[in-house]
C-alpha cells in the first residue's frame, strides 16, 4: 500500500467507524459543510456529544470553498478538536457524490480519507466499471469508497410512482463483489433537499424498508448509506417563513424512520438540508430583529450556535452516535 495521505491531516477512514456502528446499532452522521461556521458547529457538536463524524464535501462545496483551503480547514478542525476541545472522536473527510474518477483521485491526493463515486446515473455495467476503477486507486491509499445503486428520486418526482428509482436488491451482491466498495448508498424513497415527499407534515412518508431488509439479507453485515436523510425540521421552516422567507410544503424524513434505519445495516446517514435550514432561519431572524446590525459575526455566530445544538440533538436522539466517539 502507498502512504495514507489522509493521516497527515489526522483523519480516519470510515472502515472502523462502520464496523463499530454496525455492531452497536447506530449510524455515523455525515454532515455537509461549505464554510467555517458550519465546520466549527459540526466539530463542536460532535466533540461535545462524543460522536464519531464524517465531514462531507460535495463537488460544489469544494469549488465554493477552494480545494486547498478545504484541506487545511479539515486539518485545522482536527487539530482544534484534539488540542482545544480535548476530544479524540474519529473524524473522516468524505467526498459526497463524486462523479468522475479524476475528482475522486484529486480528493485522495488532497487528503480525503473517504470518497463516494456516484455512478448511479450510468448503466449498471458502466457504474460497476467506474466504481471498480475508483476503488482500485483509493484502496492503494487506504481511502474507503462508497458506491451507489439506485437513483434517489428528484425533488419533483412522486416517490410512490417512481418504482424504477429504488435500488434493486438483486444487483447488490454482484455490485459489491465486482467493485470492492466499502459501503453502498441505496435508494428506498428518500430524496435530496427540503421537499422530499408529497405528503403533509405528520403523515408517514412511504419509505421502502422492505427493500432495505432485503438488501441486508443479501449483504449481511455490510455498511449501507442513507442519503437524503434530513428531517426538514419544521421549527426552522416556520422561522424562515415567519421572517420573510417562503418555503411551502417542505417535508423531510421523520425522526422515527431515521431511528429505525440507524438500528439496521444503515451505518451512515447524510444530512445537509437540515443544516442549511438552521443557518437560514437564524440569519433571517437575527437580521429582521436587528436591522442595524452589520457585523457578520453576530448573525453567523448565532447560526453556528444553533447548528451545534441541532447536531448534538441529532446525534443523541436520532442517530444514536452520541457517546460512541
Ligand atoms: O447531495 C447533495 C448535497 O446536499 C450537496 O449539495 O451539491 O448543493 O453542495 P450541493
Ligand atoms: P438532505 O438533502 O436530505 O440533507 O441529504 C443530503 C445528502 O444526501 C448529501 O449527500
Ligand atoms: Zn446525497
Spell out the blueprint of helices and strands.
Blueprint: H1 15-24, E1 28-32, H2 36-48, E2 53-58, H3 59-65, H4 67-84, E3 91-98, H5 101-109, E4 114-117, H6 124-140, E5 144-149, H7 169-179, E6 183-186, H8 209-218, E7 224-226, H9 234-242, H10 255-263, E8 266-271, H11 273-289, H12 296-319
Parallel strand pairs: 1-2, 1-8, 2-3, 3-4, 4-5, 5-6, 6-7, 7-8
Which terms would index this structure?
325 residues, 12 helices, binds glyceraldehyde-3-phosphate, single chain, alpha/beta, TIM Barrel, binds 1,3-dihydroxyacetonephosphate, binds zinc ion, 8-stranded parallel beta barrel, 47% helix
Care to give the gist of this entry?
The chain has 325 residues and is of the alpha/beta class. The chain contains twelve helices and eight strands.
SS content category: alpha/beta
Strand order in space, largest sheet = 1-2-3-4-5-6-7-8
CATH architecture: Alpha-Beta Barrel
Percent of residues in helical segments?
40-55%
Broad CATH class = Alpha Beta
CATH-defined topology: TIM Barrel
Distinct ligand kinds: glyceraldehyde-3-phosphate, 1,3-dihydroxyacetonephosphate, zinc ion
- Gross morphology: globular
Summed up, the domain count is 1
Gyration radius from CA atoms, angstroms: 19 Å
- Name the poorly predicted regions: 155-164
- Average per-residue pLDDT, rounded, comes to 95
- What's the story with the biggest beta sheet? 8 strands, parallel, barrel
Q: Kindly report the name of the CATH homologous superfamily.
A: Aldolase class I
Count of strand segments: 8
Q: Output the number of helix runs.
A: 12
Which series of helices and strands comes N to C? Answer: HEHEHHEHEHEHEHEHHEHH
**What is the percentage of strand-forming residues?**
5-15%
| Ends apart, CA distance between termini | 27 Å
